[in-house]
Amino acid sequence: MKKLIFPLVIMVILSCLVRAQEVKVNVEDFLETEILSFKYSSELVSNEVFKVGFELMNSGSLDYRARVRLNIMDDTDLYYTGWSEEVPLWPGQSEYFELYWYPVNITGNLTGKIRIYHANEIKEIEPFKFEIKGITTPKKDIQITGLRTYEDRVEVSIRSNLELKDIIIIPSDYPYGWIFEQSKIDSIDENQEKRVELKYEPTIWKPTEVVIHVFTEDGEQYTSKSFLMEREELFATVISYFIKIFKTLSFFSLF
């Protein structure tokens, strides 16, 4: 009897091993985005810039590109729509987003709404309230001297009478449905002219009016100017790209 049991035990063990080898672990990809921190200006007074910032983490298993949209409104009107740049996020990676708005001649209670566009999906953050008290009266030592329009970006030229730090450049009043990014530069010297790029994606291209706002993060300086966006001729666009490539190569040659 013992002679029969031993072979049976061996057969059962071998059978289990064969089945174990056939088991496959199937982990499905999943899309997940997490807000790690969230800050905004809950109450604005004279000469104060509205700023919202938050850290976004890709807590899923898929990599994707993400951008953020900010809407500011009251019960009846939409005052502003702002877009961040689009950035890649790999699983486990986080990125900090900041969006700005300069309220001009606006007071009262407003609502901010944020949408995160990622992997062809939309994630909404709970709307938040804030209040503006007092009309802003800024200084105007900074000027917008020009705007050139290319296929996927505009080039804004700014000049300052003073040395200034933390300058924000944002567009507004462009067609609904367009994506138009903000930009920020660390500083500008006295009597220096700088060119700043703002990327945009139109739904269907057409020449259109856009208002460019330039202000310092502390709210002390502000100016705005309206432009008609008309694309540069092909030759000017090609020259612009060659200049960008040359500047990039010159930068890397320093290292």
What would your notes on this structure say?
The protein has 255 residues and is an alpha+beta fold. It folds into two domains: 33-132, Immunoglobulins (Immunoglobulin-like), CATH 2.60.40.10; 142-234, Immunoglobulin-like, CATH 2.60.40.10. It has two helices and 17 strands. Strands 2, 4, 5, 6, 8 and 9 form a six-stranded mixed beta sheet that branches. Strand 4 (64-73) and strand 5 form a beta hairpin. The longest helix is centred in the first third of the chain and has 21 residues, at 2-22. The protein starts with a helix and ends with a helix.
Q: Briefly, what is this?
A:
The protein is of the alpha+beta class and 255 residues long.
User: Which ranges are low-confidence, i.e. pLDDT below 50, for 5 or more consecutive residues?
Assistant: 20-26
Number of separate strands: 17
| Strand-pairing-aware structural class | alpha+beta
Beta strand % = over 45%
CATH superfamily of the largest domain: Immunoglobulins
What would you say the CATH architecture of the largest domain is?
Sandwich
H and E order: HEEEEEEEEEEEEEEEEEH
C-alpha Rg (nearest Å) = 27 Å
- The CATH topology of the largest domain turns out to be Immunoglobulin-like
CATH C-level name of the largest domain: Mainly Beta
**Helix share of residues?**
10-25%
Count up the helices.
Answer: 2
What's the end-to-end separation, in Å?
82 Å
SSE topology:
Elements: H1 2-22, E1 33-40, E2 43-44, E3 50-58, E4 64-73, E5 78-83, E6 87-89, E7 94-101, E8 108-118, E9 121-132, E10 142-149, E11 153-160, E12 164-172, E13 179-180, E14 183-188, E15 193-201, E16 208-216, E17 222-229, H2 234-252
Parallel strand pairs: 2-9
Antiparallel strand pairs: 1-3, 3-7, 4-5, 4-6, 4-8, 8-9, 10-11, 11-15, 12-14, 12-16, 13-15, 16-17
